[in-house]
């Protein structure tokens, strides 16, 4: 399949998923007790609500409303946040950089942890190091992240006074790089652990499976040293699928980011979504849900393209 | 069965179940009763683990929270098992376009960020344990569907299925009577790991304030209160987390043990 057709197909799939998500949010709003005008502001009286319903076109038949909802969506109009009195779409977008910084750093740290540990464990399956890492990875996946975050705050902030307990910067030190990193350490430690645990298992089993592939004894018979076999024939093949696996972690990463941001009062998109949900600020809840879905879809398309680019075999299919 | 043959995770799960359901028989304290003269007090005879920031007995709340978490986790996993087995068996058995369609739906469902979907649904309808169970179940069936589909697609061509067909058995009967029993080892492993996932999701949502609602205790929402008094009474943040961790470790440990026992690999 040519690169262009592949991209077109993946983009079409992405649009289809986003359309499903936006339709689901539309249905959800109309199932809400009190109807969609409750979503505008529950504190309004009946007269004002009737006026809003007429203005939003909620007196129109459902199919017309459905079309209007998507037209507004395409224009970027997701309604007005009534907690912040700002447009919901731009309120969410303003928080995206903070979430990207946190999620990006956490993903980087988890890859840097999982790959070397996974290679070491997978090359010698069943040895003490492999057994230990198996236990550690099960532990990482069993740990409730929010509790782990609270424990870290307790140790490093409340008792040790070594690191800040939350936020993105110390007042007065906003431009300082060192201060930024100090604020990132604990949230990244929390968010990266379960992702690292998950990635580790893929790396480990990928390496172990690849060690039995027919081209490895062939390389050995050719007289290559073990080190050269590992580097040239094993790692490249075993690590390539990791690109796709990282894409599969995207929902877990954004969900984990929402929890981590709440634990550490990190002003990102996830915490905004949680606060909006608690405050029944529905336009913002809908906007975050759509933004996260779009980010996950876009991330997976980018990773698919990357995979095609680094692995020539995929291009032929 | 010899006592030594019982694996540690099973023993631990047994202890946790006994703690949550039989514990109140020995510790008669109302988990919701507030004692405003004893707020965040340390251990005492009446309150072995002390009281929380509202003067409620921590031990009694741990037991009550355990009942909620374990029940929600188990029932949600049962929902996911039924959904996943239905979708997977249908896709694997029918093949063709049914398989293609169901697997595309499964892929799409896997890409949905569960937490954000939950935020939207819970903020609109308000939280209740049945809704939580439905939400967690409806967002965790995909892995099971894939496993079941793969197994059914292979078993479909086996001799015993052909024999049953030749005898004129209807499809539904073959799937239910002949295929499902073969899937049991896979499903038990998936179930034990699934309970851990469900409990983690429930407790995270409860911590965020969108799951089990106070005053009803859950391990997750006990930590919300504890974080607020982290500097004055840090010990309140320890126990609920330890309980969650013990439960998820036991479930995942049981999954690993079952996997080894049944010789099944992913």
Describe this structure in words.
The complex is a heterodimer of chains A (317) and B (266). By secondary structure, chain A is mainly α. Chain A has a domain at 92-267: MetI-like fold. Helix content of chain A is 75%, strand content 0%. Chain A contains 14 helices and no strands. The termini of chain A are close together. Chain B is mainly α. Chain B has eleven helices and no strands. Chain B has helices at 8-21, 23-26, 58-94, 96-110, 114-125, 129-138, 142-155, 159-166, 171-208, 219-228, 238-262. In chain B, α4 packs antiparallel against α7. The longest helix of chain B has 38 residues, at 171-208. The chains are: A mainly alpha (317), B mainly alpha (266).
DSSP helical segment count of chain B: 11
Q: What is the CATH H-level superfamily of the domain at 92-267 in chain A?
A: MetI-like
Query: What coarse outline of chain A follows from CA principal-axis ratios?
Result: globular
> What is the annotated CATH architecture of the domain at 92-267 in chain A?
Orthogonal Bundle
Percent helix among the residues of chain B? over 70%
Radius of gyration of chain B: 22 Å
Query: Helix tally of chain A?
Result: 14
Report the sheet with the most strands of chain A, covering strand number, pairing sense and barrel closure. none
- Largest inter-chain interface? A-B, 53 and 44 residues
Helix share of residues of chain A?
over 70%
Q: What structural category do the secondary elements of chain A indicate?
A: mainly alpha
| Biggest beta-sheet profile of chain B | none
Poorly predicted runs of chain A are: none
